[in-house]
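>> received
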Amino acid sequence: MMDIRPIRTDADYEWALKEIEPYFDHEPARGTPEADRFDVLATLIEAYEERVHRIPAPSPLEVLRFHMDQNGLTQADLAHVIGSRSRASEVMGGHRSLSLAMIAAIRAAWKIPADLLMSAPVDVATE
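>> returned
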């Protein structure tokens, strides 16, 4: 039952995915050997994906664009939040980083977590 091995290659990864798949249709009862096997496979798969198939975090601009698109917001709405049409245009055009003051305003108005809006370097001006 515990025929588990390290995931070192894509072939090992494919094997593990195939092995774990039945557990999604029929989740094993807690405390059983099948539940232990499911947990170990899930942990191994997660570690391999984190190491090999890591998805990079989106840029603050990508986060902002996604939020605006999903909520029907426009550049004019952003300008209202950060206080300037020209700054909104520069930010959306990728020509200006968000300042801490802009991040705080966006976070307060649109409830986007500040850490998603930060990237190095951050303009510390209070604009």
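>> Residues 121-127 have pLDDT under 50 and may be disordered.
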